[in-house]
Amino acid sequence: MTASLIATRIDVPHDARQIRSRNALHGALLDLLQETAFDQITIREISARAGTGYATFFRHYPTKEALLGDVAAEEICILMTMTASMMSVPDRFASILDLCNYVDAHRKLWSALLTGGAGSIVREEMMRQAMSLGDERQCPSWLPPELARRVGVSSAIDVLVWWLEQQETYSPDQVAVILDRLVIGPIVDRLVDPDALSG
Prior knowledge:
The protein is mainly α. The protein folds into two domains: 11-66, Homeodomain-like (Arc Repressor Mutant, subunit A); 68-191. Helix content is 68%, strand content 0%. The chain has ten helices and no strands. It has helices at 16-33, 43-50, 54-60, 64-86, 92-105, 107-115, 119-130, 145-165, 172-189, 194-198. The longest helix has 23 residues, at 64-86.
């Protein structure tokens, strides 16, 4: 996919009937993503699952990628903002716990987006957004800022995907501890220039 998901996002309608149709299309796509890969889902399947006409789909979206972008865009922005704050706030554990509570409260959506058929597309968009996050001054001279962001965000996504795939339920508190000790802590705590320690 060449364009970002955010770039394909469509303006929200104001007419009640259009809002119902759009919500039905969102729900249909999320349901289908839990059953099959995004690239195998057709617009006809989405329309049928939504209970709307095939032509109705195109009154709202030019492509199924645009529909996915509309569903995912706001959620990805929220999650990426939370991820960025985990790396820089003084009380990072509280920030990590906020992120875990948010994902847990929207578990069906994030399960569909990260573990369903669109997982690779959503992950690509999250990584794209991650490259614009953070303050390069936080990184020591030995660590390229882009690499710090890539490793931190990619690893955090991996932990969230693991959590969402678990049959056994782990609480947001437990996952926050895992994220802090396995991902965020080792990155943030090691953002110290070794030359500064030897002086």
